[in-house]
Queue: 2 jobs
Job 1
Amino acid sequence: MLQATENLIAYASLGAVAPEYHIFARPPAALKLESGETLGPVTLAYETYGSLNQDKSNAILICHALSGDAHAAGIHDGEGNPGWWDDMIGPGKAFDTKRYFIICANVIGGCKGSTGPSSVDPQTGKPYALAFPFITIADMVNAQRDLIDHLGIGKLLCVAGGSMGGMQTLQWASSYPERVRAAIPIATALKHSPQQIAFNEVVRQAIMADPDWRGGNYYAYGQPEKGLAVARMIGHITFMSDQSMEEKFSRRLKSGKFSFKFDADFEVEGYLRYRGDSFVKRFDANSYLYITKAMDYFDLSGARLIQTGKVCPTRFLVISFASDWLYPSSQSQEIVRSLKRHQVDATYCELKSTYGHDAFLVEIAEQTNLIRHFLDRTQNGNGKKS
Amino acid sequence: MLQATENLIAYASLGAVAPEYHIFARPPAALKLESGETLGPVTLAYETYGSLNQDKSNAILICHALSGDAHAAGIHDGEGNPGWWDDMIGPGKAFDTKRYFIICANVIGGCKGSTGPSSVDPQTGKPYALAFPFITIADMVNAQRDLIDHLGIGKLLCVAGGSMGGMQTLQWASSYPERVRAAIPIATALKHSPQQIAFNEVVRQAIMADPDWRGGNYYAYGQPEKGLAVARMIGHITFMSDQSMEEKFSRRLKSGKFSFKFDADFEVEGYLRYRGDSFVKRFDANSYLYITKAMDYFDLSGARLIQTGKVCPTRFLVISFASDWLYPSSQSQEIVRSLKRHQVDATYCELKSTYGHDAFLVEIAEQTNLIRHFLDRTQNGNGKKS
């Protein structure tokens, strides 16, 4: 079974893919935001894989994490890297493009084709920078809903995602339960704990402490590279587990001996510096600020996930990973308790893994088995509710 | 019993105390360092509490953590704050000054009176800055040994400390086993894991990313305040536990509602900013760099704690705290396994606490009971080995 699964994980098996752009909320219309402000026009960059069937009942929306984008699978022409969840999306994979029509959109507030703080403000002809309005996870989902409407899809077969993608998944089921048949929130939470807020706050402080951040108006000068690199290094520590760091680096030295300088002596230091430096080339610092704040504000605890007295038709598969200390299993169990209290059909699985929070990106075989079966039952089996 | 202990924890019960200074390694002599470099002259700032008995058998050396100093107990004239372990040191307390003579010295590399990167280099008449040689935990201990010699103490009754203080404690037993009757390493490790190195590396990068750091030559201009504040914020997250943050802050908002700005919305954000800002007023950025590197280099695993074939006469009390995820109990258990493999007399206790790594500073009653009994047995009881 494992062998069979692994054979399916062919590299970029979808081949070449390309983003598309959905533009909406053109003035005088605008997207109303939770803050009370508005945003428009709004561009959503998105990709699709597979084909929408005739009754439009096989659409699955994949939601990305903090630094993700619409490029979830396949490869872009001229670029070597496959999408961020390529192992999970493609013919025969967990999200099987022979059966399902997969959609992934860059969130608003992002910097990979969707409208965000680095986009040009039509009012000024310059990047929004901090004039960009605050956005929430619910705002991201509302923008995605416009895309789903545009694609003519009344009901999504499934919404799925890990980390912040899991927050969007939960938000979809909360905001539009009648439009989501199944939801797969992975390695996520109903709300950030103070520790999660604290890590995000330090990340923001690291960016804003860099004088090159210039109060957000750095676009004519270049990124606040040092601050953003430090921010990303903090992130990477929280994405890995103590054990995965031990397996990957232990205390191995880069040059076999101590430098007695402030160089990167240990391999783990070199790795973090590399990850920090490469991040500044691909991600907008202001987007990092806006998106981390959206995650901190997110709170579907209490009666916010399922409104009291309402029947939620969505069925859930909740997945967490044993070594994930950033979004610990206890937070996934809280999601499940909240669902069960409201008589929602929910399955929970904690997967063994040493990869920490990164596990949702790398533990392919086990997730594939769970998700394939769950989607199968949702579409064809006794899980069919509507 | 608990009540009795708590009654003993009177605030600054030692009253007014003052630091003393031991100056040694005057040229042409010098302190030889592990790096191969030398340092001299060396000043050690230290404080003592209680009285040395006639046969000089009641001396206890307390070692401080990363940002600690020689002021472990009592109060300095004109200052309101008691020493960092005042609850543990004083008449009737765990380290009972009616019975024991307590010594605490600021480490070399520090910035609270001992020679460190902010000290004036006699060669140039200016602060050392990065011309200060690299120091290790063993170098810190060698400097302390000179102080102990100066005080005429042949054998310490005990060496004790938490976190980096625990590393020094272990190093004492490794370097000078015949001079240490008992050792109490608390919330510490034989070596830093890659995750611990990673956190320290991000801390260093945050400091060095600040242009006000000026390659270490900031003394004429002022501290790299923003970078150092970010560094300390990272530290504070790791010192607390998820649970203690939940108990202290939960998701409480500072002003009752979201700001929809990059302000500190949550109380935990305000707390971290406050701790970061106050740290820059009291601690030298270069000292933070040097001392974190010393911690990362520290490694007494394998046969380095107790040399193979040697008999270690020191008896150990090893303490860890259940919610400490920075120095998890597994690392203390590794210390104990290493001791037991060499037939060393070792007692281990994991204390229940929600305070995370900070527990060694705040869990007074339980530590007091353990330590008082252990010292008693070392001095008078069946633990007497020499």
Job 2
Amino acid sequence: MIVILKPEASEDLVKDIVSQIEGLGLQAHLSRGQFRTVIGVVGEEVKVDAEHLKAINGVEQVVAIMKPYKLASREFHKDDTVIEIGCPAGGTVKVGGGNCMAIAGPCACEDEAMVHQLAREVRAAGATVLRGGAYKPRTSPYSFQGHGEDALKWLRDAGRENNMPVITEVMDTRHVSIIEKYTDVFQIGARNMQNFNLLFEVGKTRKPVVLKRGLAGSIGEWLMSAEYVLSQGNRQVILCERGIKTFETSLRYTLDVSAVPVVKSLSHLPIIVDPSHAAGDRQFVPSLARAAIAAGADGVMIECHDCPGKALCDGPQALLPETFSQLMKELAAIAGVLGKKFTTTPAVKGSPVAV
Amino acid sequence: MIVILKPEASEDLVKDIVSQIEGLGLQAHLSRGQFRTVIGVVGEEVKVDAEHLKAINGVEQVVAIMKPYKLASREFHKDDTVIEIGCPAGGTVKVGGGNCMAIAGPCACEDEAMVHQLAREVRAAGATVLRGGAYKPRTSPYSFQGHGEDALKWLRDAGRENNMPVITEVMDTRHVSIIEKYTDVFQIGARNMQNFNLLFEVGKTRKPVVLKRGLAGSIGEWLMSAEYVLSQGNRQVILCERGIKTFETSLRYTLDVSAVPVVKSLSHLPIIVDPSHAAGDRQFVPSLARAAIAAGADGVMIECHDCPGKALCDGPQALLPETFSQLMKELAAIAGVLGKKFTTTPAVKGSPVAV
Amino acid sequence: MIVILKPEASEDLVKDIVSQIEGLGLQAHLSRGQFRTVIGVVGEEVKVDAEHLKAINGVEQVVAIMKPYKLASREFHKDDTVIEIGCPAGGTVKVGGGNCMAIAGPCACEDEAMVHQLAREVRAAGATVLRGGAYKPRTSPYSFQGHGEDALKWLRDAGRENNMPVITEVMDTRHVSIIEKYTDVFQIGARNMQNFNLLFEVGKTRKPVVLKRGLAGSIGEWLMSAEYVLSQGNRQVILCERGIKTFETSLRYTLDVSAVPVVKSLSHLPIIVDPSHAAGDRQFVPSLARAAIAAGADGVMIECHDCPGKALCDGPQALLPETFSQLMKELAAIAGVLGKKFTTTPAVKGSPVAV
Amino acid sequence: MIVILKPEASEDLVKDIVSQIEGLGLQAHLSRGQFRTVIGVVGEEVKVDAEHLKAINGVEQVVAIMKPYKLASREFHKDDTVIEIGCPAGGTVKVGGGNCMAIAGPCACEDEAMVHQLAREVRAAGATVLRGGAYKPRTSPYSFQGHGEDALKWLRDAGRENNMPVITEVMDTRHVSIIEKYTDVFQIGARNMQNFNLLFEVGKTRKPVVLKRGLAGSIGEWLMSAEYVLSQGNRQVILCERGIKTFETSLRYTLDVSAVPVVKSLSHLPIIVDPSHAAGDRQFVPSLARAAIAAGADGVMIECHDCPGKALCDGPQALLPETFSQLMKELAAIAGVLGKKFTTTPAVKGSPVAV
């Protein structure tokens, strides 16, 4: 950490800050310039509170050298983390370190039949994990809010039938235990990226967590949110970029594809991309999905529906299963250019979806 | 609602959409242009799901005419809502409709003495409501997270001593009842603007709610979040602008002062401004507070601390009580230019803070 | 300047950078931390090219301590610059250092009569400087592009009749000399904030320049653009905040009112605000103008029109002269709260506008 | 165009607007809803000025149905435009419609030898067009501003030696003719996307124009800027996405990769991507370049340098030629997945760079 003082900072201030730093068992290196004094902090930076120093009159700027997240950082863990997601019929699927994953399924679990139907279709197309909403975050209190526990059951059963792990969004600390009972992966939605209590709660479980980036979440803040989960002992965090808010309104959000290589440089955690929510319009989903894999993402999360015009939510962005199937072929080819491959779960014996 | 079809939209599609609209008891007006067909929906727009229509192939654009929020809209409620906040010694303070309010106090309740000390100071300077954090949303899991119920008690007692209503942030649905027990106003923080379950829970109480705008919250989305609270029967929502994320990084966030008149044109709810979190740096707080009142805000929320360099959180933005006192004089004068005034609670008899 | 090396940076790299720094006549202070080496540069930072150092493999971060602009900085010039604008009948009006100014007039000079009519009206309401567009930057090539030199003549004559200095926008290096001939102040529009050749050209004149902030211009970049003008010897730069592009679309742009105090802390130059272009909608102009003055701005620039529904450009944002007149009273009162006042030019003897 | 009136709009206003519309030879369709009247305009929308209608009291909203750009729109020109760039030794290279192009070279032409050296290297790696700056837009007036006409000569000669068309940026209307003399393609930089006079001037030439997107340019505004060039008869516009300003600061700008498919849906013009300026850091350039091609871009523009640590500008983002060469192989493979290919110019007989 480097503390830059204002030109008018007094000698007493310098002494005071130095003694605060030394009081923490760290060393302070002074560098007196022509215009300003700069104090370098040597030692474990995490012991010093940058905000605390910034609050002192006479301090102009405090520059962190170490990242404020530790467990999530590549400095702490040099190799890519490979996360293993348990499958209903046993075994695991891997994500990260050369293994790509496709999560697919409906936005919301609308009824039992549709979940089963879509599960078969997306699995046949190459999806690894089945998604489906049970508790839906909706902008309007008057919109459909999800079928709750019923939806969780449909999802679990469809996962079992196809040997696909299942994922659903958790929005409330009170729902963590019920969702944990039915599903294999927690999803934290963009609007909850900084719902810190929720992060602590999923951090206390031992199931993988897909952590979406908030619409205004900087990459640093996002990794701090991952740190919330990791700090509770759950080391299975998969980051998911899904678009940020910018001035450009031609699509719903602006997919920040650069987040993929930037996260990979800063962190060892896998990162996937959700082009469906970023675009909000199915015609742009394939382009964005291809861009994500080409940029180095470890997978995609894509919404599908057999009849988007009838979907209870997010119909405009849902791909038809046949479009998804075609897209998966392109994604596999692009992953190949980067020396990576998409993983799938073994088909269940006697299952109608064996491919 | 207006549905604009793509140039290539078939006659069958037009018929299909018209019959969907009529099936909802609404009328469809067709306008066939040289290049496109446009369908106007006449009747209660809220019955039609715009997203549903957008999901249909052949539909280019759906334009809403009515606002998607109803209870929050000025169309629904023409006059300014005046909210009354209960005071510990009885009586109320008003916010809205010409009545301005200043909420002030420490970022976090650090210990009992400091809360009492600051309460006396901010009250003497003209603050109406006492703030103080008990559960703190922190970017880092390693930062101080608040003193919880102890802090709630200190806050309540300091409020009683000074006859000031008290406000604190609620971050978790599981904390609503305990916070309701100790405080007079709920605060929903920026990071929870779209924590929909939390909005429903405070909507079920009957205490006023200060709803901060999210860092990426559009004004429309913010009013939809207010609608969540209102829809549960709690009509006491006070909006609070506190800065949005933009490309400009000289201050922590960009205060969107235009939100004040825009909200007033769209909604009857009071709106206040938090310049402390917007700026993140005390030297800019007075300017932003003055701008807020000049723009027509119904109040401000300002963090104070007697020794910002020792604050457990957000020290850089805390005003010294004497600076706050000077600022209150300027704010009162500016409110006067607009024909408004700041309200205060009656002093408690025998209280040391009677002014 | 502080150069932070990557953990893996070699000893040779350290030596190489140190020798580069010393080769420039500066001193290098080494600070070897537990994890990284940090090199502090002592001396005139402007001699070192930060980008150059950043381009070297092994360098992680380069932190500037000095501002990259010098002539525009408050470090260089501690007191507020007061700019004097020459009036047609002699004498000057002051801007900055406690003197506020209102620039008003039509978006475009549509015909001779309207320019004269509006000049009289805005002067009577308290405007100091008359604005009017001759060369208009229009998003569409098919829109009205301005009346060119004719408009310049109308503007000059209306200024003379009312003893008001006049300002118009310059968009092309080829127009600098003709605009200099007719007007008293140059305006550089938001879209040309980084039209560096244009900045050099107006920098070579000796007339004041109102430099608008670009829609994506950070405050630092804006001050660097001011530096372009100042570096050519023209020290009369007035900055003008007029809204930035953000995700919020309820108004045309987001007025960054914080830019006012931030600029004042970094620079000695006066700063005014253009609420008309920020809002794009006349109903919000008064609120934003009041906020600007309350935040500490040295003036406002406001578009007026006698019949906005017939305006050739930007009609939706034009104030009627009577609304402008009412607003000027409020602005004067708010300026008074801050101990400042609006200046006006002396009326010309025998002029019909003497007030 | 659809005009939505305020609930309180009078019958006289309706009549007035209808008669204005009919006066332009268009038809007005009235739709009277329960709450509001809506007027649909049938005919050539471009005849009506939306802004004009918005400026009328009683009008709430004006919704355009047609795009405000015509020549740039895919409605006007259904097939992809394929642009042919002339090569020094005769013949052309194609861009668009399945033909991808790589523009590469140094940020600035620093001296004759380096331009020739890099030209040979990037051509050997597969670049089609040679770039090099002669007039440089620099944030600081004190930075290196380019070698002007000398640089143009070095660039032309290096292009001839390698049979590569050359491109350089034009920043000033006064430089159009000299740049036209030496180069094959004009580049309009991001900061000049709305330098309308400059757009008109390059529109009057008959050489292809690479038009970069401004840092705050919406896709609609960008296409309007293309319309400026097209409207002057120059139909050879190549769009170039190079990152926009957002709140995310981990890289210099945020590459809006979605712009690629969105532009392709709205316009027939080719679009390429500049990952170098978007990232500002060479370690992220390959990821972004791959994402661009995977999203469907018609090419990339990449900065290279043999010794980035010595570059006179933008060294941190320059790729070494060998990295560029490796990247080109990946880009070709990804283009192949989409059924597209990179084009190259024929080697000049006897040239040392024949590959």
